[in-house]
């Protein structure tokens, strides 16, 4: 299948990624790929998990442990600035979810195919001419790390690639599904964290300046920093949309803020299926990958209701908790589908800019 996958990837680059890059910034309006060769080394699938519980009977859900280490040749240019750059190798490792839906009674039995990563994959890119690329106005604030994060997040939920296999499938509903629920995360406090700050050239151990990074798919939240405290109290609340379960997890990492490189203070991974079952979890969790430290979280699973009959009750409840979140707590979810536009005015300013 690899040669045909490569054809699909080239089509994706030219028809989806190239126009998206051109539209992202005025300075990138002449961006184009001049060569796309993904190479002959195929992607490896190291393991497959198939879900048989808590899934719709009209779909098949697969989690693929994928690994790709390939020598490729991808060249790009921005004609306006006579800039050329490229990629000569890519590595990507992670869990890709494949959803086959809807199942139908005619060949090919599957209406469409959806692909995405449940969490940010490990991505490494060997660039050529990256310095030239970062000299382009509008890109000079970027770095290799930031570019990798942007690409990685584009592959992660709620972003997805959906390929229709029959003509009458409702592609918009597959590409932009209604979330399964909302996860309300009360990021409360921690205890007994490691002291990473040192004095007298490392002889005396001090405290830490802890903060947390919380991830659900590509939704990322960062807490405030608590200075010089091994038992910090944050008392912050975040809300994240959950699109896929089983499989999605809440990821938390704690760090000690430093002027140069922040020190790692521990991590936590929580399966959202457990939160959905319990509806409310209020627990102390032991931090992983460190010798000590605990984190106090309260997690609420909120189900989406199709009618507004309980809205007054919800509004009363969140008014009582109004001080818990800077932006307030949510009472409802608005989903807006932007379908198309017609007869848009011509942008003469942009034309003048290009011609000058």
Automatic annotation (TrEMBL):
PROSITE patterns: C2 (PS50004), SMP (PS51847). Transmembrane segments: none annotated. The gene is Esyt2_1. Its main location: membrane. It comes from the Eukaryota. Belongs to the extended synaptotagmin family. GO terms for cellular component: endoplasmic reticulum membrane; plasma membrane. GO terms for molecular function: calcium ion binding; calcium-dependent phospholipid binding; phosphatidylcholine binding; phosphatidylethanolamine binding; phosphatidylinositol binding. InterPro entries: C2_dom, C2_domain_sf, Ext_Synaptotagmin_C2A, Extended_Synaptotagmin, SMP_LBD, Synaptotagmin_SMP. The lineage of its organism: Eukaryota, Metazoa, Chordata, Craniata, Vertebrata. PANTHER family: EXTENDED SYNAPTOTAGMIN-2 (PTHR45761:SF2), EXTENDED SYNAPTOTAGMIN-LIKE PROTEIN 2, ISOFORM C (PTHR45761). It holds the Pfam family SMP_LBD. The keyword Protease does not apply. Residues 1-166 form the SMP-LTD domain. This is ESYT2 protein. Residues 165-285 form the C2 domain. It is a peripheral membrane protein; Multi-pass membrane protein. It is found in: Cell membrane; Endoplasmic reticulum membrane. It comes from Baryphthengus martii. GO terms for biological process: endoplasmic reticulum-plasma membrane tethering; lipid transport. The keyword Endoplasmic reticulum applies. SUPFAM superfamilies: C2 domain (Calcium/lipid-binding domain, CaLB). Keywords: Calcium, Cell membrane, Endoplasmic reticulum, Lipid transport, Lipid-binding, Membrane, Metal-binding, Repeat, Transmembrane, Transmembrane helix, Transport.
């Amino acid at each position: 299948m690899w040669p045909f996958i490569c054809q699909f990837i080239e089509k994706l680059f030219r028809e989806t990624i190239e126009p998206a890059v051109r539209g992202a910034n005025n300075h990138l309006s002449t961006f184009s790929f001049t060569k796309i060769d993904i190479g002959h080394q195929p992607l490896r699938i190291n393991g497959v998990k198939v879900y048989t519980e808590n899934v719709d009977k009209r779909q098949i859900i697969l989690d693929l442990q994928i690994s790709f280490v390939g020598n490729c040749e991808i060249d790009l240019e921005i004609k306006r600035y006579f800039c050329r750059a490229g990629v000569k190798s890519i590595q990507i490792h992670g869990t890709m979810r494949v959803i086959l839906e809807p199942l139908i009674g005619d060949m090919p039995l599957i209406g469409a195919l959806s692909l995405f990563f449940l969490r940010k994959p490990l991505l490494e890119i060997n660039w050529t001419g990256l310095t030239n690329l970062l000299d382009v106005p509008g890109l000079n604030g970027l770095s290799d790390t930031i570019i990798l994060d942007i690409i990685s997040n584009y592959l992660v939920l709620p972003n997805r690639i959906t390929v229709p296999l029959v003509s009458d499938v409702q592609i918009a509903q597959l590409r932009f599904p209604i979330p399964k629920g909302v996860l309300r995360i009360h990021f409360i406090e921690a205890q007994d964290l490691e002291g990473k700050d040192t004095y007298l050239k490392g002889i005396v151990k001090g405290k830490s300046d802890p903060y947390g990074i919380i991830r659900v798919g590509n939704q990322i939240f960062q807490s405030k920093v608590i200075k010089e405290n091994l038992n910090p109290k944050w008392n912050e609340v975040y809300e994240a949309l959950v699109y896929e379960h089983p499989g999605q997890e809440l990821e938390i990492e704690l760090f000690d803020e430093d002027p140069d490189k922040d020190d790692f203070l521990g991590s936590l991974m929580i399966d959202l299926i457990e939160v959905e079952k319990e509806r409310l979890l209020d627990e102390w969790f032991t931090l992983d990958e460190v010798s000590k430290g605990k984190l106090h979280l309260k997690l609420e699973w909120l189900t989406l209701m199709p009618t507004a009959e309980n809205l007054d009750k919800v509004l009363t409840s969140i008014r009582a908790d109004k001080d818990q979140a800077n932006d307030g707590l949510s009472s409802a979810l608005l989903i807006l589908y932007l379908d198309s536009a017609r007869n848009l005015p011509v942008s003469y300013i942009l034309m003048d800019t290009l011609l000058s």
